[in-house]
Amino acid sequence: MTAASVDRFAADFARQAASLPGARVPWVARLRRDAMQRFAAQGLPTARDEDWKYTSVAAIAKRAFATEPAGATPQPAIDAYALTGSQAHRLVFVDGRYAPSLSQIGPLPAGVVLDSLARALDRAPEALEPVLGEARRHTIFAALNTAFMRDGVHLHVPRATALDAPIHALFLSTTSDVAMHPRNMLVLEEGAQATLIEHYVGIGETAAFTNAVTQVYAHADAALVHYKVQQETVKGLHIAGLHVSQARASRLESHSIALGGALARTDITTTFDAEGCAAELNGLFLVGGRQHVDHHTRIDHASPHGTSREYYKGVLDGASRGVFNGKVVVHPGAQKTDAQLANHNLLLSKAAEIDTKPELMIDADDVKCTHGATVGQIDDAQMFYLRARGIDEALARSLLTYAFAHDVIERLRVAPLRAALERILFARLPHGERIRALA
Fold first, then answer.
1. Is the Cβ–Cβ distance between 246 and 270 less than 8 Å?
2. In the chain, fewer beta carbons within 10 Å around the N or the C end?
3. Rounded Cα distance, 101 and 91, in Å
4. Are 187 and 108 in contact (CB under 8 A)?
5. CB of 150 closer than 8 Å to CB of 73
6. Is position 87 within any domain?
7. Binning pLDDT at 50, 70 and 90, where does residue 200 land?
8. Residue 209 domain-assigned?
9. Which run of H or of E encompasses 421?
10. Is the pTM of this model over 0.70?
11. What pLDDT is recorded for position 137?
């Protein structure tokens, strides 16, 4: 099964390589070719791979995907997914390609580059050569992405520049059986600040495969707030990676929200390459039916005086399955590290399942590190409290579920995004409108 899938991807690459962005640039062509060779040598992960022990990619391996839609892609209405009331710069990608007619980029501070990656590869590839490549702790899907990457967000923020308005990168899947490989490339120079919202949406009953990679280079004192909202259809297949390199006193704030997909896997890694770095990783997955969602995170405290906070929650209903593996690695010499890691999960049905594994690997002696995980159902004492006050059982369960999930949503600082996710939460809960009135 794996060999056949490798052969299909290799054949697709042989057909498409000459037409991919930057194909005539020697170093880009070499980068793609080397990545494809690595993918062909290793193949797709199996249950024998420890990091994929609980997540099968058989649904990806057994299907043939086109690398682009057959014929012209219609321009969908995006009003339902726009951030109402926000001054965000909007870049829209339809089935993996930049759609300028649907995008809206406002005035930018001097020196800021915000564009389609495909255009950058064709027009100014030399600006990307020092940074574009595979991340240090990537999965094999990142190699596949490097081979096929066609488009995505290219952001470069110069020294001491703040991009006040957020960037809303909206990736729309409109066609089934198509594989998309978005690559987002962010460079924040010393003291730069930016906010990026990656938003993946499936239209109708689209059964597409998204394989996305976002690379971030945060120079000294830079600050990035990153939101990822995965809202694809329950037939969609979604693999993604966020890989960050942090320089001295840089700051990363990451929020990962997983709502859709038959299979969804997100890897988030960041490395503290110098002293005084900080990272805050928050996440929420809200799934039901037979959905499978997996988050793997890794924070490498490779330098002293680093601070990290990680807080993930999962709500699982039906026969869904969740996987959470959070790893904090404190390297030798990374003294004065302060790290906290927590994962809490709420199972709403007897058939739902979660595999959670918070990990600490500590090779320094002057540190303060904690980790923990909980798995449970609706608390009987809380249910009794609400029922004793005349609230019926169904509404009481929904109220408690809302409170559990909203604890993560309220941490989002972009108000229109927070409001949109609250609407989704209300729509998914029984008696959601009654809860909205009470909230």
1. yes
2. N
3. 10
4. no
5. no
6. yes
7. very high
8. yes
9. helix 415-428
10. yes
11. 66
Residue 74 sits in which domain range? Answer: 2-274
Cβ 269 vs Cβ 240: under 8 Å: no
Q: Which residues contact 172 (CB under 8 A, 6 or more apart)?
A: 76, 78, 81, 92, 93, 94, 95, 201, 202, 203
Distance of CA 85 to the CA centre of its chain: 24
Query: Which structure tokens are listed for 283?
Result: 């996440």
Q: CA nearest 283: which of 191, 409, 380?
A: 409
Closest by Cα among 372, 376, 374 to 358: 372
Strands 337-347 and 183-188: unpaired
Report residue 51 as tokens: 């990091």
The number of residues in the chain equals 439
- Of 222, 257, 274, the position where a domain reaches its end is 274
What end-to-end distance do the CA atoms of the chain give, in Å? 50
Asked if 40 and 12 touch (Cβ cutoff 8 Å), the reply is no
Q: Write out the DSSP string of 63-130.
A: S--BSS-SSPPP----TTTS-TT---EEEEEETTEE-GGG-B-----TT-EEEEHHHHHHH-GGGTTT
How many structural domains comprise the chain? Answer: 2
The answer to whether the beta carbons of residues 163 and 194 sit under 8 Å apart is yes
Asked if residue 373 is part of any domain, the answer here is: no
Q: Which two tokens stand for residue 437?
A: 């009135």
Looking at 257, 274, 291, the residue that finishes a domain is 274
Tell me how far apart the alpha carbons of residues 136 and 359 are, in angstroms, rounded to a whole number: 19
Q: What is the DSSP string of 348-377?
A: -STT-EEEEEEEEEE--SSEEEEEEEEEE-
Query: Is residue 103's pLDDT more than 90?
Result: yes
Same domain, 270 and 384: no
Residue entry with tokens 């100014």: 124
**pLDDT for position 138:** 79
Structural Rg of the chain based on CA atoms:
21
Dig out the tokens for 397 from the structure: 């369960």
The verdict on residue 388 lying in a domain is: yes
In the block, tokens 């499978």 appear at 292
- Which residue in the block uniquely carries the two structure tokens 């193949």? 43
